[in-house]
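Appendix B, record 7
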Amino acid sequence: MPVVNEGHLQFNFPAGWEAGKPDDWRYYRDKYIKLSDKIKCIDILAFPPGSREPVWMIEVKDYRVGREKLTCELVEDIVSKVKDSLGLIMSCCWQNEHRNERALSKKAVAKKEMRFVLHMEQPKHHSRLFKEPIDPADIRDKLRKRLRHVAQSVQVESKSKNNVPWTVT
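Structure tokens (predicted):
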């Protein structure tokens, strides 16, 4: 059962899944990031077993310890990360000398569908600076509109509202 830690959260994927953090890939750290100092990737790339299953891109935002972005900035940041991640995956298929990373990239490209999930945790009590929480439905709608040409599904999840095949603790 693959486990991926992102910040204070632990993602537990079902048996048979493969999951990892693209920004931990050696190719990303050694070569891809040198294209631009602004390159950032999504937090987790996950693959369920089976060739007909989608590849999942998961971005994690934990605002329980602070929030630095408004909703419009968050959407732009996420869209940019998805774009950079897609570029990483394609480049990794051709240029990566690390077999495991190249195999995962080729597996992602071979998938017929990509799904995107924003996993977002928010504080129970909000700060004076950001009195209103980020509305998950609003951010989901904005992300769906922006990512509709690359992702077949866009979801916003949290530990309390989890409609995905993995668990978060």
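Remarks on this record: The two ends are 14 Å apart (CA to CA). Helices lie at 26-30, 71-95, 99-110, 136-147.
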